[in-house]
């Protein structure tokens, strides 16, 4: 039988956060789909409506946390998948740096847009 290998250390911080963000993303994604695809249909979504929803501090914080959790979960998952495929040495460090920079830029841009939609910038 093949040996199971994972770059995640069971019980480690990255392992734990990957599972916590997955659970959070499932719940918030369900909320997102329900609100923006069933309560409000795609043709009814406008910038004004988005600005109105972002005025609710709970909605605003949920969307910002959704962005941060999604970015972390995606980057951590891609990185660990590559490590599991044998990525090591300098290429591993370069990939990690590129992924962290990309996630950072995504989060900064997303928070900036959320703040603009809330009227804070």
Automatic annotation (TrEMBL):
Lineage top rank: taxon: Archaea
Localization per record: Membrane
UniProt xrefs under InterPro entries: SQR/QFR_C/D, SuccDH_FuR_B_TM-su
Entry-linked Gene3D superfamilies: Fumarate reductase/succinate dehydrogenase, transmembrane subunit (1.20.1300.10)
Keyword set, alphabetical order: Heme, Iron, Membrane, Metal-binding, Transmembrane, Transmembrane helix
GO terms for cellular component: membrane
Annotated transmembrane regions: 20-39, 59-82, 94-117
Protein name: Succinate dehydrogenase subunit D
Organism: Natrialba hulunbeirensis JCM 10989
